């Protein structure tokens, strides 16, 4: 594989290609396009086939846009054409899963949220990268990557764009961000108009509580800090006292009216708009992607909105346990890919140190420490907060039953938010169902 630093690798590649062409031209003094004429046959012509790969991706700035820009540079250096098949967010993961499990060869690579990787790996639908890693650039530094995705000791996905939960707050109202979730609740009351008529914001806070891809992830950032677990040593933990405590916080803030009454229907865009328009004073946990978009927006509050590591829970030793969830957009290779070598080369190109820096300059959030720590990247408020959050952050476990787990958690959390069930009953029921799934998976 190439070293992508500068143009030296390109020169080597072109030199090799020209040597091959020269060798073909010199054979028996014939021109390369003359070919030979078998007995009674017609003269054949040698035609070099264009090398190309296809990437299936979800439309959006954190997925297809970054990959497309990287692809332009990759094609300039290698001549390998990168085609794209795009789909909107609706049913993207369902379509991706159905195609891969169904054995399609319509694309070589795909972008995916890492939490879908284990089910696809278990189904044998994606190609591990291990055999290709040996051919990677010798300067490719795996230790520099914030995390990797292995399933059964095989690298099944390589991340390129990080998402992590941060805490967003109006610094003109809240000079010092709350350190604990209890402080968070207290500040929410202070900046809710029904509690404080002088509050300039109608509500104190909000978060993504819409049933779907984000809701359980947002809950885990709170639950983990209270000592709850999704599962540990094959034992489900979403009905533990810590998990129930987090569920009680959700429901109590809803009942108290310190978050908007339609929060159960709020996704990322709703929370983003509420921050932008001054409807809420805080958002937590909230994705890192909101920061750049807020700063680029026309919000009158964009210079007043600051970020910090998410609040946590004070421990017996006085320290505060904070556990922001992180995940990533990753590249996976189709088991039926037609051009695995060039596909692997493109993954290397995108996720190398140079590729990570290119992504940062495009507005993405790469997963390499060396790039995140680079002092030339500004504003440092953002990158330093991301680095601090990564130190204490966690990811969901890669399990083959992830989709079922996610579905039952959505059901439990929605019932908590809408008040149709108590946190205790909802989460203990979810724990029982999750344990059954875990036990069946062991058989």
TrEMBL record:
**Ranges annotated as biased composition (Polar residues):** 31-45
Residues of the region (Disordered) are 26-45
Q: Which domain of life is it from?
A: Bacteria
Q: Which InterPro entries match?
A: SBP
Matching Gene3D superfamilies: Periplasmic binding protein-like II
Q: Does the keyword Transport apply?
A: yes
Would you indicate the residue range of the signal peptide?
A: 1-26
**Family as reported in the entry's similarity comment:** Belongs to the bacterial solute-binding protein 1 family.
What PANTHER family does the database record attribute to this sequence? Answer: MALTOSE-BINDING PERIPLASMIC PROTEIN, MALTOSE_MALTODEXTRIN-BINDING PERIPLASMIC PROTEIN
Q: List the protein's name.
A: Sugar ABC transporter substrate-binding protein
Q: Which organism is it from?
A: Paenibacillus marchantiophytorum
